[in-house]
Amino acid sequence: MADFKKAFLKTSDIEGGYSNNPLDKGGETYRGISRRYFPDMKLWEIIDIEKKKPGPDPINNISPSVRKGLDDLVFLFFKENFWNRFLGDEISNQEIAEELYDTSVNMGISRAITFLQISLNVLNRNGDVYPDIVEDGKIGSTTLKTLNTYLKYDKPELLLKIMNVLQGMHYIEFMRESPTQEAFARGWFSRVEINKA
Fold first, then answer.
1. 3-state SS, residue 58
2. What's the predicted TM-score (pTM) here?
3. Which CA distances in Å does 40 have to 15, 34, 43?
4. Is pLDDT of 197 > 50?
5. How far is CA 151 from the centre of its chain?
6. Burial class (CB in 10 A: 0-12, 13-18, 19+), 98
7. Are 31 and 73 in contact (CB under 8 A)?
8. Where are the domains of the chain?
9. What is the DSSP string of 120-132?
10. CA 77 to CA 65: how far, in whole Å?
């Protein structure tokens, strides 16, 4: 079964540290956690204390003990609010679990699951391998069973490619609707890996 720690470390490298870009619709963020969407997290109390400390860049010069506490909060937050919610421990393929996790963190769990469901539906050989599933953005026994059936017949690379194409199309549509978000195109597309299979 998939390992959360591997997925967490991979996505953490992309998310980076502290950011407060006025163009970012998520607003102030720390390691990918948006204050706008998660304002009651304990880590914001710690960040606010650190921001008041003297020096040119106090957030990026946090003491090792404070950083360890923040790291523990971040790890538990992503495990409970993302990985567990799409049943990451029940997914048999690490790459697919990592893709679901990274897309969930960046775009939301429902959208990540919908990308998986659409991809599974277009790869079922017109229903010969398994029937279409509902593309509702909710994961449960039917989606997991369908994924496992797919993996008996095909390698994960094609499924991952289609999921990434859907992710990339979402970014393009989003930027066309909101051109100010083009500032984030390079970072977003670093998450889209379509050179597999």
1. helix
2. 0.90
3. 20, 11, 9
4. no
5. 22
6. buried
7. no
8. 4-84, 93-189
9. HHHTSTTTTSS--
10. 19
Helix (H) or strand (E) holding 34: strand 33-34
The span from the CA of 166 to the CA of 122, in Å, is 12
What's the N-to-C CA distance of the chain in angstroms? 22
Q: What would the two tokens of residue 108 be? A: 């939301």
Average pLDDT over the chain, rounded to whole? Answer: 92
Give how far Cα 12 sits from Cα of 40, 105, 176, 182, Å: 21, 10, 27, 22
| pLDDT tens-place string over residues 135-168 | 999 999 999 999 999 999 999 999 999 999 999 9
Render pLDDT for 29-66 as a digit per residue (tens, 0 to 9): 999 999 999 999 999 999 999 999 888 888 878 889 99
CA neighbor of 166 nearest in space, from 122, 115, 117, 132: 115
